[in-house]
Specification:
Elements lengths: L14 H22 L2 H21 L11 H15 L1 H14 L2 H6 L7 H27 L8 H28 L3 H16 L12 H8 L2 H13 L9 H4 L1 H25 L4
Helix pairs in contact: 1-6, 2-3, 2-6, 3-6, 3-7, 3-10, 4-7, 4-8, 6-7, 7-10, 7-12, 10-12
Keywords: Antibiotic resistance, Cell membrane, Membrane, Transmembrane, Transmembrane helix, Transport
GO cellular component, one term: ATP-binding cassette (ABC) transporter complex
Family: Belongs to the ABC-2 integral membrane protein family.
């Protein structure tokens, strides 16, 4: 029989401090893994930079922005959002690896906060996302992209991008708990591309067939991309559909809705593991 030390009850004065301390410990664990094995992080950053260079210098000359404007300015808000989407597979893989190696069960048997493991993973991935976004902004400036809005609008746009990433982190956490095996991870990685390309990230939805453009407009990625284009003062943030006209509030509504769905699903799935 395994004896487990008691943990503070959810209503005890020290429960919040206990949960925060455990979450921080597991956040540091996630970050330390990247420090000891930086290869995947470096590869991910290099891949994102390579995609930017391909679209700017190989494909950009053939692209036309509806209403006029530089394609580089049109592209980069879409690329910022796409790099957040590309992180789903990494989150899924990290969570799945802990489950399959028994680390999750080990943590569940320890006297730690029930929310700590999930919160630690989410915070660690958000820290990596901040680094990724910083690298992307520097890359964008290097290839000629410029934001034309105010400092407050610039920071608000970055906030919307990270809010989208927070929602996508919890999708990745849920998928990591629900799926298993290398094939499942490959499937998640494969789906990132059609989900991202079926949006306004790389081309204006007005250039698509009507039915396809409507689907792309209602992609949550498109709302964030359109909203950040407006805040950055970049071209391409126009459209006559309701969802495009209300892109700014929808760039908040979509991530919050996804959080309200996938956060409780992740908690419920974690609690049901190996019962």
């Amino acid at each position: 029989m395994t004896l487990v030390a008691p943990t503070p009850s959810s209503g005890s004065p020290g429960s919040l401090r206990w949960a925060l301390a455990d979450s921080w410990t597991l956040t540091v664990r996630g970050v330390s893994h990247w420090v000891r094995n930086p290869g995947p992080v470096i590869f991910s950053l290099a891949f994102n930079v390579l995609i930017v260079l391909m679209f700017v210098y190989l494909l950009g000359g053939a692209m036309r922005v509806p209403g006029g404007g530089d394609y580089r300015d049109f592209l980069m808000p879409g690329m910022f959002a796409m790099t957040m989407l590309f992180g789903i597979a990494a989150t899924t893989q990290a969570v799945t690896a802990d489950v399959e190696r028994g680390i999750t069960d080990r943590f569940r048997s320890m006297p730690m906060s029930a929310a700590a493991m999930l919160a630690g993973r989410a915070v660690a991935d958000m820290l990596l996302s901040v680094l990724t976004l910083a690298v992307m902004v520097v890359t964008a400036l290097a290839v000629g992209w410029r934001p034309y809005g105010s400092t407050g609008e610039f920071l608000a746009a970055l906030g919307l991008i990270l809010l989208l990433r927070l929602a996508l982190v919890w999708i990745g956490v849920y998928l990591g708990l629900a799926l298993s095996g290398a094939e499942a991870i490959t499937g998640v990685q494969t789906l990132e591309f059609p989900v991202g390309f079926l949006s306004s990230a790389f081309v204006a939805t007005a250039t698509m067939p009507g039915w396809l453009g409507a689907i792309a407009d209602w992609n949550p990625i498109s709302s964030t991309v359109t909203a950040t284009r407006r805040l950055f003062g970049n071209p391409g943030a126009v459209g006559d559909s309701w969802i495009v006209e209300h892109a700014l509030p929808m760039a908040v509504v979509w991530p919050v809705a996804l959080l309200l769905i996938f956060f409780p699903l992740s908690v419920a799935k974690w609690r049901s593991l190996r019962r």
